[in-house]
Amino acid sequence: MKTAVLLSVVLTLLTIAAQGETRNAAFDRHDRTCRRDANFAKMLMWQKQHGWSFTDSLDWIDEQLKNDPELLMANDPNITAMNKQILNITAREAYSANLEIFEHEKQRVVTDFELYTYRHCMDLLEQ
Length: 127
Description:
Elements: H1 2-49, H2 54-66, H3 69-74, H4 77-96, H5 106-125
């Protein structure tokens, strides 16, 4: 009887630990994805501030996606298309932002946009 109880406790603890590890792995995956998206947002805002055209930024996104190691490993055109669509939306957000700011505020605007993109991404993935 004691063995059965002990075995059930051990199995319960192992199940809880596995679920915790799964949640941590999911968080790490979401964090990595959102950090990448936030980095793209930062670069797109920087490009806008430095006079890049919207088309040049879209071309830059295409080039980055072609060389993304995770997308190359996945080798799934649907995932690549979804990532491209998300980054195109981010580019539109960056290029529609009002940038009539002083030169010394440019870095703050870039950082705020990067942080906003990261938080928005994590909120969506954790739902």
